[in-house]
Amino acid sequence: xxxxxxxxxxxxxxxxxxxxxxxxxxxxxxxxxxxxxxxxxxxxxxxxxxxxxxxxx
Length: 57
What we know:
Layout: H1 3-16, H2 25-56
Helix pairs in contact: 1-2
């Protein structure tokens, strides 16, 4: 399972569990998921740049 799927599953689980949002856990999970998504986007960007650098050298 890739990281994006894991994030989506965690969000779905947190939304489905009664009382999860009341404790603020859902907000924390959303912030964590947003940070993970930004990291994944940056990793993809860096790997593309790295691939281009290798191709040009």
